[in-house]
Amino acid sequence: MRFSRVLIHQCRFSRVLIHQCRLSRFLLPTLLLFGLYVLALLTSELFVALSRRFEAPAQKVESMEEPFNTKELPFKYNLMEETYGRKWAKTPDEEYISARDCTAEYANKNKLQQDHPCVIRLIRRDYLRKPAPQHVPYRLDVPESADPSDGQAQAILRILQNKTNGFFVDCGGYDGEFLSNSLYMERSLNWTGLVIEADKLAFNQLINRNRKAYTSPVCLSTKPYPMEVVYNATIGTMSFISEQNKNVHHKKPDLTDNKDETLNKKDTADVYRMQCFPLYSLLIAVGRTKVDYFSLDVEGAEYKILKTIPWAKVDIKTLTVEWNHVPEGEEGITSLMESNKFIKFGLFSMRFSRDVVYVKDFLDDFRDYVDE
Predict the structure, then answer these.
(1) 3-class state of residue 71 by DSSP
(2) What integer pLDDT is reported at residue 169 of this predicted model?
């Protein structure tokens, strides 16, 4: 640009240069080339300016992980990536909700995703106890009983070939000893895991056992988000389900959706509000999505709980599921599990149990193989 100004200045004020320019037969080609050069410079600067202007919003979305349009997304499991994209985990937790505003009431009301940072923070902060140290002795009522389960532990260990150092999830763990499906694995084969029990009295007994596993005083949600329910434990280890059948008694307390009018009543020693979380949320909170054995015994909600699990994101090898109180029946549970690549291994009926055993179909990957 400076060169062009000098040239113009010289052309205007120097008669000698003008005379030479007129006489030169190269004047027109030279001016033409110079004009093309100037035009190219201006076009390049304009392109850069426009690029910067239109790139700014894209950089903002990537750095802030702002939610895109989710109206057409299938909220089958209500996971963070379905709402915020695959890069959501790179965003600081505070971008979604501050620690001060993260409460159980907020999580329930807003139906936060199973892996929402607030949900995981809540579990770790208020609803999870770490395993007792290995050197701390157990405090059992019947320590000489190696396997207090009703047959589930031995059945699963036959399938897993007496696996050691495994990981279990025991939902409906009661006091951590009586009819425990996981205690033998923990004591004899060095397993660890997560024991879930919503009954307050039973959980107080559970934490005194010094189990070498995580323990949580919650119930498993029947929805793919946190929720609050009414917990009915009116007859000790039995429960009275007045909303369904006045003559039916079960060994585990009743769970009633929070829309029930009993939520407005004052909590009592036997009927009280209980916080529930999806199983996937609890697994993330303890840092384990690979489970060797999942024991599910919650007296009727098994099907709904299994339906909340994002099976593509977890690796559960074996399950025992109590089925005789499930409205969908054993057939409904089996259909659900088979659709998620599990095989029904068999049914067994013991003194206290009516369970169905499922094993992950590890041959499924081979069925996709095509010989070319």
Answers:
(1) coil
(2) 98
